[in-house]
Design a protein that fits this description.
Elements lengths: L1 H16 L8 H14 L9 E6 L1 E2 L3 H12 L6 E3 L5 E3 L5 E2 L4 E3 L15 H9 L3 E2 L12 E7 L12 E7 L1 H10 L21
C-alpha cells in the first residue's frame, strides 16, 4: 500500500511539474486537464477533477476578480463558505487561493472559493510538499480527498513562495480498494483500516 500510494504521489507531482502556469487561460487549462485525465489511468480509480487556485494578494484581488469576470462573462468573486453552507465575499486577508479553473466544471462548481482556510493547503504552501485532506463530504458527488500541490516558477522555489496550488480531487478509498483487488486471493471477512501516521494527533 505504501509503495503504491507513493507512486500515486509521484504521478500527481509529475502532473504539477508539467502545469503551463504562464499565460494560463480557460482553454489552456482545459487542454492540460485532458492530458491529466488520460494519463491518470495509472492511478486506477483516476482523478475526479483538477483545479487551479492561484496565489492572489490583497492588493491584486480587485484586478484578479475583474479579469476573471471579463473572461467568464459572469459575476466571479473571491468567496468564503460560511458554517451554514452559504457563500459570501471573502474577508480581507494577506493572500487568497481562490478556485480559478476547475475541470470538469459543473453548474454548481464553487469557482472563486478561497481555499486558504484549509490547514492542508497552508501546510503545502509552507513546506512546498504535497498534502492531502482527510476523506470528507464534498459540495457535490461522493466523499473524496483533496490533494494540494504547490506550483513554483521555473526559476525554482524561492523565498517568495508558490504562485498557486493545483488541487486534485480523488477517492483515496477507491485507490486503496484497487490496490487490494490486485492481491490474489482477495482476503474475505476482514475489515481493513489504513491509518495515516503523519496526521495530527486525534
Amino acid at each position: 500500500l505504501q509503495e503504491a500510494l507513493s507512486r500515486y504521489e509521484g504521478t500527481i507531482e509529475g502532473f504539477a511539474a508539467a502545469f503551463p502556469y504562464e499565460n494560463i487561460d480557460s482553454d489552456r487549462f482545459r487542454a492540460y486537464a485532458k492530458t491529466v485525465f488520460l494519463a491518470s489511468s495509472v492511478l486506477r480509480s483516476g482523478v475526479e477533477s483538477i483545479a487551479w487556485a492561484p496565489r492572489v494578494s490583497a492588493a491584486e484581488r480587485r484586478a484578479f476578480e475583474a479579469a476573471a469576470r471579463i473572461e467568464r462573462h459572469d459575476e466571479y468573486a473571491v468567496r468564503d463558505k460560511t458554517d451554514d453552507g452559504r457563500l459570501e465575499p471573502a474577508a480581507p486577508t494577506a493572500d487568497y487561493f481562490p478556485l480559478r479553473y476547475v475541470e470538469p466544471e459543473r453548474s454548481d462548481t464553487l469557482l472563486g472559493l478561497d481555499l486558504s482556510r484549509l490547514r492542508e493547503l497552508r501546510d503545502a504552501v509552507a513546506t512546498g510538499r504535497t498534502f492531502a485532506t482527510r476523506t470528507m463530504e464534498m459540495w457535490y458527488g461522493t466523499e473524496a480527498s483533496l490533494l494540494f500541490v504547490p506550483v513554483y516558477p521555473a526559476t525554482a522555489k524561492n523565498g517568495g513562495g508558490p504562485i498557486g496550488v493545483l488541487t486534485f480531487r480523488m477517492s483515496i478509498a477507491a485507490a486503496i480498494d484497487a490496490i487490494i483487488v490486485a492481491f490474489e486471493p482477495i482476503p474475505q471477512g476482514i475489515d481493513l483500516y489504513v491509518i495515516d501516521d503523519a496526521a495530527p494527533a486525534g
